[in-house]
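Anyone? Bumping this.
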Amino acid sequence: MTAAEAPDAHLPAAGPPRVDLLFEPGGRRVRVPAGVTVFDAASWNGIGIDSTCGGHGTCKKCRVRIVDGAATPSSVDIRAFSPDELRLGWRLACRADAASDAVVEVPPLVTRPKAATVGVGRRVILRPAVQKRYLELGEPSLADQRSDLERILDALDDLELRADLHAVRVAGRVLRAADYLVTAVIVDDVLIDVQPGDTTALSYGIAFDLGTTTVVATLLDLSTGTPVAVASALNAQQPFGADVITRISAAMLDPSTLGKLTELAHSTLAALAAEVCAEARVDPADVYEIALAGNATMTHIALGIDPEPLGVAPFILAARLLPEVLAADLGVAVHPRARAVVFPPFGAYVGGDITAGLLASGMDRDARTRLFIDIGTNCEIVLGNRDWLLATAAPAGPAFEGAAIRCGMRAAEGAIEVVTMTPDSVSLRVIGDAEPAGLCGSGLVDAVTGLVRLGLLDSTGRFVSVEAAAALAPGLAGRLTTLGEERVFVLHWLGEQGDVARSVYLTQRDVRELQFAKAAIATGWRILLEEAGLAAGDIQQVLLAGSFGSYLSPGNAVRLGLVPDVPVPRIVSAGNVAGEGAKMALLSVRERAAGLALLEEVRYVELSDRADFNDRFIDQLAFPSFAG
Amino acid sequence: MTAAEAPDAHLPAAGPPRVDLLFEPGGRRVRVPAGVTVFDAASWNGIGIDSTCGGHGTCKKCRVRIVDGAATPSSVDIRAFSPDELRLGWRLACRADAASDAVVEVPPLVTRPKAATVGVGRRVILRPAVQKRYLELGEPSLADQRSDLERILDALDDLELRADLHAVRVAGRVLRAADYLVTAVIVDDVLIDVQPGDTTALSYGIAFDLGTTTVVATLLDLSTGTPVAVASALNAQQPFGADVITRISAAMLDPSTLGKLTELAHSTLAALAAEVCAEARVDPADVYEIALAGNATMTHIALGIDPEPLGVAPFILAARLLPEVLAADLGVAVHPRARAVVFPPFGAYVGGDITAGLLASGMDRDARTRLFIDIGTNCEIVLGNRDWLLATAAPAGPAFEGAAIRCGMRAAEGAIEVVTMTPDSVSLRVIGDAEPAGLCGSGLVDAVTGLVRLGLLDSTGRFVSVEAAAALAPGLAGRLTTLGEERVFVLHWLGEQGDVARSVYLTQRDVRELQFAKAAIATGWRILLEEAGLAAGDIQQVLLAGSFGSYLSPGNAVRLGLVPDVPVPRIVSAGNVAGEGAKMALLSVRERAAGLALLEEVRYVELSDRADFNDRFIDQLAFPSFAG
């Protein structure tokens, strides 16, 4: 069999080649990009290996035996093992690159690792960047004149740390006031604080999902992995526009607007941080790290970076890999030297929220070929499995956010979220069981699907004549009427029947908006399937991300052609995966590294410069025809 | 010959062993600690080797041929050279460790390196941490969607940089406003700014000598190495005490004092920075780095660190290696992301000013055995050569600063700086040619030496009887009188002769103060000589550092026993070596690294816990007897 005949030969080459590792005992087989360390490969797949230094090669505890495929010993291995052990394949997992397929024997764990379940059923072994260490230090003397900082760092010699000026400022007084019994607070490789006594039990982080519309904060106890408080709020930037494009435009029109938008992002984050801390009775000074997942525009603005180049061709990010940021740089008043992990974007329209979402859904580690769709004004689509990932962004327009729909609204109280139609009746489910006030994205999809299925909308998306409607669905014909010059379908009469203007209705133009959105999204995933040489039937799971995904009826999404034609049980609402990814980053430096690695592993397919995009888009405008 | 018989076998082992490198053509032979790179060894000795990356192994320009003693090729060498070249001994100088004696051939320079003379006649090849690079970048397109930051960093691929948030914030607007013709501002490995157009000519640094009494600022043009403005001011902390101990005590008595002292240090530095920039018409925003050399107490306070542990046994520093600091952390308003290099201290009483002074005087590179003495309230003494260095601190007390001397004053206008005595007359030289107002340290030494030489003070330091004085020095006997119960010698009558209280005079207690100071210092260098197994005659040069050193009469310093008995021409005033060291750190990252390396190479000899210190101190109290 030549390479060209290999079963996967038609698949796109994205990122480095993959290798298979078989972990024993247990027989777990994992597939990872060649070149990651055995330690990372295990950790990313929830397989515990002893370590206290977190993979820096200093604690020498992550001993494994590589039975088959052992690599050249590293300089650290040579010091850690005897020549006999080296010959038998013993290596430090953190220094052994997975260069080729191998079998790895893991000794029984000395310490059972703590783990938490986050994301889409992901088991994450706790290894936060935040570490607290209680130290009982000897007092200095003329025979031991080490500086205060050296005294502390010498007691942490399994880590290679540098100190923050803040820690050096407080160290002297704290050491002497606490009789040299202190807790060192470390984030990554930085000593950020020294506290009197044993404060190791108090260690928190806040995960933020910074959405254009809604911002969610989760306070995590980093020592247990447990969320202890959650709060959400509307993004205070709302007055500057409902979507990213209007906010970018606002910043372009008036140079002073960027500063205001940044301040509003900060005040939203700060208020939520205060709220979750108050709810859980946690001192904000015990929050040592925050993580932020948002789209590229929200992330740029929160960091005080002009988003204008994101909004105009050729759609350029200020930076993919973001610089080191403090929580204070984002206006969040927690520990003064707390760090901020900001999820990096792939591109202007596939942002850090998607990086976080892919991490949370394990797209890069699952053997199944899956399609990840985050539906919104901008729709991000990722197709792939642990061997390859393709991503694109489709300009869906504002149909699903409600903005361009005449009676549209966000998925909030009063929004019609489910519409069920028969030829005789329309039944509605309304969020909060309230009087219907408008139509949210999932209701829109249901309503249009119902009308297409009953034949009241033809396959080009046009309302049929009143006569045809009366024949097809006698009980609904009265709802198909006009408002001014436009044809509309009334979903719910508010006030007197016949007073169309005061009812909740669907217009011909609304249908067109949905057609455009659906066509853009369907073109996006079709192009990705084609790039991968796959058909819709090859997709083993469709993950619908975000709040829209949780409301959408999978059946109707398939009927409308919004998602590929796969069996309905394969369509799964993944929930707020961006927020889950942010939590994972706080709970594990390994997961954080995996999130960064995604930037290299995902190949981005740009739609806007494809010659065939418009043709294919027009092909997708039509609705499928239903047999009844 | 056994090791014990080798000529240097009695010398103290301090720091790593040394190796000899012979650079060809030119035949310069240098001796450096084993393990430093060939590039550093050359650079520290003013020998130029091509390089643009500054020794990171990325530019691959520092090609040298190691004729004899070639080391194993590094992984970078293997990519940079052909197997034939490797066999011939070609290596990258920045990756080749000087492990043993070797001959190094340096190809002719492609670019003639700029150099400046600073310190005690040191030729420094310019390689500031601050680098500006003018970039002409391509505009982005749909085919080239690299982020703004990637576009800039790709054009700087001979450096391995990370970006500061500030640079990412400004990059987008600057790139677009300047048609992608920009200047990148880099400090060390951090991109701190992006500026429109070509601003490479504007690059400045400020070197600060932060003294307890006086603070000096020098504005340096980093592109030429030229000082463009100098200013000095009294340290605004003066109201809290004249010396470090009184300032530490002030901070101990009232916890709010530390904040005030820090603020006063900052305001002194800030005012001087503003002054030198205004004088040279330099925009403070074009100052990208500052360097600070000061004693441990001044440095701690300037960084906002409690100095209390420095002032009480066992004399503990907050940190030897200080954390990364911004100019803003020291209150200096220059470029908002400018860095600060703070010279690290050896110990509580051998501070960063001494580190800087040793660097400037080249103590660690000179073949001659030299004695470095910085006389002040605390006297720092370093003995050694390029093979070994010993340091100690002697508690000289405030005699030389004028504080404990009845008519004492700082070396300022009106201070008697030189006193010449014959049996018949006293002649004085006064700073600023003014009416004498008091006696500074050098005048004190002269006066006491003169009195001892004439026999008016006996070898125990007591004034002789009036009768004996009249016999020995008839013309001066009228000056030896009493004030209250104390015997005094009048140096200059102010107002009417006979009105002792209004004259400038020397008291018996003043003589005692000088005896104590002299005994402490002499005990210090004697103990160092003994540790090194050397005699005074082995000292080839005595360097007197600081302003006191420039006023002191070398002859009298020898006569009094303050410095070892060496021929007077070997005693050299080294001037403000702390400030010179700070300049060197700004002009060359190599010199900065050499300054850090000193911390490892100097062995500190603690006097306060030596059982024999008091005995030896008492031995040194006596004055030498003179033959006329």
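Late reply, but here is one note on the structure posted above: The radius of gyration of chain A is 28 Å.
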